[in-house]
Amino acid sequence: MNLKLSLLALTHLLYSFGMLVSALFITWCLLSRADFLYPTFYQWLDIGSTITEFAPQNRYKIGFEETTMEQHVQYFSQIVTAINHDGVGLSDIQYPYQGNKIQLLRPAEVLHLQDVAHLLSGLFKVTIGVVIGLLSLLLYMFFRKYQLPSKRKQVVQLAVLVGTLTVISALIGFQAVFYWLHRVIFPENNEWFFYYQDSLMTTMMQAPTLFAPISLLLVLVACLIFVVLNFAVTVSYKRVVDLTKDNG
Question: Domain limits at 225?
Answer without folding.
Answer: 3-247
